[in-house]
């Protein structure tokens, strides 16, 4: 018995698919083959690692004087004209 994997679209033997039992005790096979399933798990683990790195606190940023202005900036005066320009989104979305 063969089954087509939903991700790699390859028709493989049913033994290449993980088997589960539904609430009625009927044997069911997952739509992803074992190779695609392990690949997805690996990608998920990799994504988790990236999130962990981002969540790691930066000691420089966590310092109490991290967002203090430069002392020289206190004497500075900014006389500027504020121009409000609406955000422009190109047609067809942001991905190109
Ligand atoms: Zn597959």
User: Quick one: how many beta strands?
Assistant: 4
Radius of gyration: 27 Å
Portion in beta strands = 15-25%
Order of helices and strands: EEEEHH
Q: What count of helical segments does DSSP give?
A: 2
From the N-terminal CA to the C-terminal CA, the straight-line distance is 43 Å
The spatial strand order of the largest sheet comes to 1-2
Bound molecules: zinc ion
Binned, the helix content reads 25-40%
Largest beta-sheet details = 2 strands, antiparallel
Classification by helices and strands: alpha+beta
Average pLDDT, to the nearest integer?
85
**Parts with pLDDT < 50 across at least 5 consecutive residues:** none
Shape: elongated
Describe the structure.
The chain has a domain at 2-56. It is built from two helices and four strands, in the order ββββαα. The chain has helices spanning 34-55, 59-62; strands spanning 2-4, 11-13, 17-21, 27-33. Strands 1-2 form a two-stranded antiparallel sheet. It has a two-stranded antiparallel sheet with strand order 3-4. Zinc ion is lined by residues 5, 7-8, 10, 32-33, 35-36.
Q: Could you give the topology of this structure?
A:
Elements: E1 2-4, E2 11-13, E3 17-21, E4 27-33, H1 34-55, H2 59-62
Antiparallel strand pairs: 1-2, 3-4
The structure holds zinc ion.
Zinc ion (ZN) binds at residues 5, 7-8, 10, 32-33, 35-36.
Please sum up the structure shown.
With 96 residues, the protein is an alpha+beta fold. The protein has two helices and four strands.
Key descriptive features of the protein:
binds zinc ion, alpha+beta, two-stranded antiparallel sheet
């Amino acid at each position: 018995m063969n089954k087509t994997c939903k991700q790699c679209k390859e028709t493989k033997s049913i033994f290449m698919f993980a088997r589960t039992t539904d609430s009625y005790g009927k044997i069911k096979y997952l739509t992803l083959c074992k190779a695609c399933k392990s690949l997805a798990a690996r990608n998920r683990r990799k994504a988790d690692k990236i999130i962990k790195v981002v969540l790691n606190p930066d000691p420089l940023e966590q310092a109490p004087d991290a967002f203090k202005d430069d002392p020289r900036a206190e004497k500075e005066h900014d006389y500027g004209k504020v121009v409000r320009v609406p955000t422009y989104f190109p047609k067809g979305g942001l991905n190109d």
